[in-house]
Amino acid sequence: MTTFSNQSLMRNKYYNWIIKNLFSSWVNSLMTVVAIIFIYEVGTFFLNWAIFGADFRTNFQGEIISDRTLCSKNIMPGEYGACWAIIYARWDQFMYGFYPIEQVWRVNFVYALLPLAIIGILFDKLPYRKYFIYFTFIYPFLAYFMLYGGPGLSVVGTNKWGGLLVTLFLGVTGIGLAFPLSIILALGRRSKMPIVKSLCVVFIEFIRGVPLITLLFTANVMLPLFLPDGVNPDNLLRALVAVTLFQSAYMAEAIRGGLQAIPRGQIEAAQSLGLNYWQTTRKIILPQALKIAIPPIVNTCIGLFKDTSLVLIIGLFDLLGIGRAALADMTWTKLYYEVYVFISLVFFIFCFGMSRYSLYLEKKLKTDNS
Amino acid sequence: MESYFVRKLIFDEKSRSLLIQTLVIGLFALFIYLIAQQTAYNLEKRGISSGFDFLNISAGYDISIRLIPFTSEDTHLRAYFVGLLNTLMIAVCGCFLATIMGFLVGVIRLSSNWLFRNIAYVYVEFTRNVPVLLQIILYYSILLHLPKIKQAIEIFDGFFLTNRGFFTPSPIFKDGFSIVLWSFIVAILASIFIKRILKKKQEQTGKQYPIFYINSALIIFTPILFYYIMGRPLEFDTPVLKGFNFKGGMVIRPEFLGMLFGLSIYTAAFISETVRSGIIAVSKGQREASQALGLKNNLVMRLIVIPQALRVIIPPLTSQYLNLTKNSSLGIAIGYADLVHGFGGISLNQTGRAIEIMLMVMLTYLTISLTISLFMNIYNKSVQFKGNA
Predict the structure, then answer these.
(1) What residues contact B255, with CB distance under 8 A and at least 6 apart?
(2) Interchain contact, A222 vs B355, CB within 8 Å
(3) Is residue A112 part of a domain?
(4) CATH placement of domain B76-167+253-383
(5) CA within 20 to 30 Å of B343's CA: A93, A272, B42, B116, which one?
(6) SS3 A267
(7) Which residues of B touch A199 (CB under 8 A)?
(8) Could you list the residue range(s) of the whole structural domain that residue A360 is in?
(9) pLDDT tens, residue by residue, A106-118
(10) Could you read off the pLDDT of A242-260 as tens digits, one per residue?
(11) A271-280, B101-110, B340-349: which has the highest mean pLDDT?
């Protein structure tokens, strides 16, 4: 008997859910019908295009697709969907740019260690977190040595870097370099010293008031003018300077929000214990403020990661730049949707992951109460 | 004596802050001086002259999308204004469309229908996690793959979709149309006046008047009435296919449409999130209390929920408008002739005055940003709580 009543209760639960969320009134029912038709139409169209009617490596005759004329949809127009062969053909470029193919293991090595380098920052209850954090500080030097080369490894100039490598390099390095800078800016903006404060305010508001593309142009055209002869930063470094300055202004505002959330009592208590400004800031304020500020900081990081795609306008080959280069090639031209959908997916995976992480943190901070 | 002075500098807060600030400003000045000197040296060595005299030289290039007449003989200064107007045009149109779409999606996200809610959720997640530049390029390439002019799709009578843009009839205003326009403006002013009087009456007598219907009728029918009185002073010039192109009408270029779709679809996702959180932020008690007072559902929304939600929505909405305006500079990727593309790109390449041009472009964006913030702050003040303080 009990099982039966349990079952009917369960059925009731689903039934109630369906009534409440899909058929609560006749308007609601109509909306449900419209939505189902919409999902069916869009879903079948997209799935047919992307999967069921698509070519992956071979076309419908079983031939390996080596240029776009062999795509099924170009042999029999109107019958077939996407031709993903372009992604396979250009995979190395998407991942490594023009990195010498026999040296690609170095990039893979750096990619593989990236999760280890950031996991310590992401999760504060990780076992052996201290060692992970040590590794985070070693990683940039290791990565630079591996990617660029040096004693024992052949030098690969940054003009050979491209694709995901450039996107990740600009994103990760930009965020890493902007972080300390943004703390200084945020503290400076909250400073009681009028000159320090106004310098920080002007810097932050100036950067936030202009588009990133103008900063990239400026860095690209004017950095060589500012610097003495002989010092000639390459294009990637110029872009990195612009991206870092840009990100530091936005991050500083996120951190300022965290600083403002710290009750005055905390500062006063620290001062009454005899701590000076730097001790108060380093031991009392920053640890609390940064913790509160992590979700908005992650949001600025998502923004930056997406904005790295702008470097294609100054002639660098990031993911999108490589995609456009592939489309400019006569053997693959016109496969726009395949390339753009693929790149969108890559960006989506990274950005959606970051936004989920920020959401997870927000939830954790709400229950932590600390 | 000397040690006292040093100790004071380190331990006295006032003297110490003075010391630090002197150091900071000294270093800053040194930094600026070094850069300025190096730049002057580099410019001289490369034989690049400086100054703003280039603004009066003829530009020598053409701009296809323009709001004011422009030929290649016109000056760089005029190219600057053409670009500025194009930037403002895309920013205004984009903000307008993004706001409508954002509010719509934000409300759908709170719909009682589970499927609608989640379709909106998927839209939001997919558009805001993909770079806006990629979206602009994607929509632009879709627009470029519309049928050629010969096989144009006719949506309505006289509206054609082609890969060269969207051809629509263009209005021709004849004498007397200005009177129709004026009657429209007068009707709006009158409706504001009527609203005030009826509101006052309602407060005195308690009787409700259908203000909304009266005013809508007034605003809609007055211009129509005058339109017929003046003998229908508006005609349309419909585009007609002649040879290889359309004759007559006007065309909205795919560059503009690509920018418009890219910017507004992307920004709408963010706006919808702020709208959603704004509506959620209005406490449930407010809604229940107003229902208990006997207000109908649409009145609850209009009088209770939306005014309070706006307080939460306006500040983040401002920053979305700012973002959209700054993102409009991405037009350069698809050839939309905005400030960065024309003046900041082609003029810069032709004259080589990088410092002057980038300075002008940046200051322009800064001015636009500050103006938007200023107006939105004024509006924000008008919707915030009006306490006794």
Answers:
(1) B65, B140, B331, B334, B335, B336, B337
(2) yes
(3) no
(4) 1.10.3720.10
(5) B42
(6) helix
(7) 24, 28
(8) 162-368
(9) 999 999 999 998 8
(10) 999 999 999 999 999 999 8
(11) B101-110
Residues A340 and A198 grouped into a single domain: yes
Residue A189 located in a structural domain: yes
Which of B137, B329, B330 is the closest to A340 by Cβ? B137
- Helices marked H in A227-335 — which ranges? 235-260, 264-272, 277-279, 286-307, 319-328
Which amino acid is residue B369, in one-letter code? S
Mean pLDDT to the nearest integer, B67-96: 89
Helix axes B132-144, B254-281, angle to 10 degrees: 140
Contact A244, A307 (CB under 8 A): no
Rounded Cα distance, A299 and A320, in Å: 21
The ipTM estimated for the assembled molecules is: 0.90
pLDDT at position B329: 93
pTM: 0.88
Instruction: Report whether B134 contacts A343 (CB < 8 A).
Output: yes
Q: How many domains does chain A have?
A: 2
CATH code at A230? 1.10.3720.10
Determine, yes or no, domain membership for A67.
Answer: no
Distance CA A343, CA B255 (A): 21
What tens digit of pLDDT does each residue of B20-69 get? 888 989 999 999 999 888 888 888 887 777 778 888 888 778 887 788 88
The span from the CA of B277 to the CA of A177, in Å, is 33
Closest partner CB to B134 (pick from A199, A217, A344)? A344
Q: How far off is chain A from B348, nearest CA to CA, in Å?
A: 10
Which of A17, A204, A210 is most worth mutating to test chain B (most B CB atoms within 10 A of its CB)?
A210
CA dihedral B311, B314, B319, B324 (to 10 degrees): 160
Indicate the SS3 state at residue B165. Answer: strand
Residue ranges of A 347-366 with Cβ closer than 8 A to chain B:
347-348, 351-352, 355
Q: Looking at the domain assignment, is residue A262 inside a domain?
A: yes
Task: State residue B366's pLDDT score.
Answer: 94
Considering only the beta carbons, identify the residue of A21, A336, A347 that sits closest to B113.
A21
Does any CB of chain B come closer than 8 Å to the CB of residue A206?
Answer: yes
Q: At B252, which helix (H) or strand (E)?
A: strand B250-252
